[in-house]
């Protein structure tokens, strides 16, 4: 198809990358990016790029990826609880300052003839172009202005978080909780330059209020940083900060917003990135999603003969991957929101729980890729020496085969005996609610007293993970034994739930 003009609204990473790809594919088209801010104006600190994202960018445009990698900073990861820390080899994980990333992408867009218009705010109604790509962010004016066409829904998370930074490079990425007189704060921090690190800090609403941050948030203008919170957190995380300050950049507490749209295109307008969808930062950055959207859009435009067909194909091809990631991300967000409840776990076991929290990584894969962390975590679960933990092919069966003692009862393995389900002190619970919803809270609070709870539900993998998450809430609330029914074929998922202490026993069955 021939496109004579393409307008991109938004000069963030997604918009710039889309503009370059579209200009390369349609060299005769006039491609213009309209960005309301100045070239060096940005919000945030570092942007992480996992190895899989780098692979996708390399396949789409090797040259721009080379430019990004040259300006990026590699790092590994760790988790620390108290005085105990475990290190995680994270492969080819890179981070880059958002300002540096924008500079690289601006240069590569200009290099192929894209027109960059800064301090130039435009709306769809202002433009006369064959194609309008709206990459205008989480608060997208395009999406807002065409609400009836895109039909968005927005769900807010329970916890609160803020982005800040510091003026030195941490030795590696770190997940670290700190408990103060007001409650627990959890930092996700990583280096992105030789003299810079990102600090993302989370907490629950009750802790946030006890610390007075509801008041400081209310009193801080949107154009400023909440210095009251930064000063408090700088003291709380002084060990990790090694005496360095926390730096703000319009830093205020907020709740994560998960955005979904029934449609991503209307007429000649198409949404990409945060304008169309968001996924919690603990699973994948908005930058990653936006740039991968740009790749899919470019491919669909090349393959189709008409614009309507191309935009429909883009959405059809891209939506399943985005929705899958959003489902995983929501589960991960809930795990982090409830992270302080797990601080009783040994840190190596907590790392296994972290890696398997949303079904993206199995116990087997974790043992295979990082045995020096996974084996101590599995050993803590089984109360054995790490040398007794087998290698990857046998580890799932080994986890399922561990004995259990609970409330005076002994089980030879983690397979629930059928007689347990019909025991007088066992209560069957059908799980049909989302694990971290208000309905789930009421479900757990209103459970009749029992020594064991037997969880049932639908057969699909997503709802099996709902049972695991509800199971963890029940275990930690009641102290009772928790059994989850799991379809045959999901043994690896069950192993992760057992090691993470989300359930105690599993009952396998063959789904219809």
From TrEMBL:
SUPFAM superfamilies: FAD/NAD(P)-binding domain. Pfam families: FAD_binding_3. One of its GO terms (molecular function) is FAD binding. Keywords: NAD, Oxidoreductase. InterPro entries: FAD-bd, FAD/NAD-bd_sf, PheA/TfdB_FAD_monoxygenase. It comes from the Bacteria. Residues 99-325 form the FAD-binding domain. This is Oxidoreductase. It comes from Gordonia lacunae. The lineage of its organism: Bacteria, Bacillati, Actinomycetota, Actinomycetes, Mycobacteriales.
């Amino acid at each position: 198809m021939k496109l004579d003009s393409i307008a991109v609204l938004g000069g963030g990473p997604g918009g710039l990358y889309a503009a370059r790809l579209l200009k390369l594919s349609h060299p005769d088209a006039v491609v213009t990016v309209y960005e309301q801010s100045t070239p060096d104006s940005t919000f945030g600190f570092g942007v992480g790029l996992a190895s899989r994202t780098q692979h996708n960018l390399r396949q789409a445009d090797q040259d721009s990826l080379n430019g990004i990698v040259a300006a990026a900073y590699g790092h590994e990861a760790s988790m620390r609880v108290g005085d105990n820390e475990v290190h995680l080899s994270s492969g080819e994980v890179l981070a880059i300052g958002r300002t540096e990333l924008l500079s690289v992408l601006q240069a590569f867009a200009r290099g192929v003839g894209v027109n960059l218009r800064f301090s130039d705010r435009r709306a769809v109604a202002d433009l006369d172009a064959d194609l309008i790509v709206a990459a205008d962010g989480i608060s997208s004016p395009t999406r807002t202005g065409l609400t009836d066409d895109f039909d968005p829904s927005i769900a807010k998370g329970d916890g609160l978080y803020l982005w800040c930074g510091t003026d030195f490079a941490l030795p590696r990425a770190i997940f670290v909780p700190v408990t103060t007189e007001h409650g627990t704060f959890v930092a996700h921090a990583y280096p992105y330059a030789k003299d810079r690190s990102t600090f993302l800090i989370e907490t629950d609403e009750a802790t946030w209020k006890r610390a007075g941050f509801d008041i400081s948030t209310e009193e801080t203008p949107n154009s400023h940083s909440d210095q009251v919170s930064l000063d408090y957190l700088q003291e709380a995380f002084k060990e990790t900060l090694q005496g360095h300050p926390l730096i703000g950049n319009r830093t205020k507490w907020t709740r994560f917003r998960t955005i979904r749209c029934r449609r991503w295109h209307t007429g000649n307008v198409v949404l990409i990135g945060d304008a169309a969808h968001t996924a919690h930062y603990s699973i994948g950055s908005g930058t990653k999603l936006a740039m991968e959207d740009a790749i899919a859009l470019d491919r669909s435009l090349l393959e189709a003969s008409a614009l309507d067909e191309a935009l429909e194909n883009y959405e059809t091809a891209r939506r399943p991957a985005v929705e899958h990631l959003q489902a995983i991300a929501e589960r991960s967000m809930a795990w982090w929101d409830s992270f302080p409840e797990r601080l009783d776990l040994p840190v190596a076991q907590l790392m296994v729980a972290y890696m398997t929290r949303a079904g993206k990584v199995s116990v087997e894969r974790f043992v295979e890729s990082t045995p020096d962390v996974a084996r101590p975590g599995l050993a803590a679960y089984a109360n054995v020496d790490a040398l007794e933990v087998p290698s990857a092919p046998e580890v799932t069966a080994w986890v399922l085969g561990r004995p259990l003692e609970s409330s005076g009862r002994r089980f030879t393995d983690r397979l629930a005996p059928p007689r347990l389900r019909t025991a007088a002190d066992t209560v069957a619970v059908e799980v049909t609610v989302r694990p971290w919803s208000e309905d789930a809270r009421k479900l757990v609070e209103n459970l009749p007293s029992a020594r064991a709870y037997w969880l049932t539900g639908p057969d699909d993998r997503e709802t099996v993970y709902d049972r695991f998450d509800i199971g963890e809430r029940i275990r930690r609330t009641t102290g009772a034994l928790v059994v989850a029914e799991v379809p045959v074929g999901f043994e690896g998922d069950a192993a992760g739930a057992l090691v993470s202490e989300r359930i105690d026993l599993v009952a396998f069955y063959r789904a219809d």
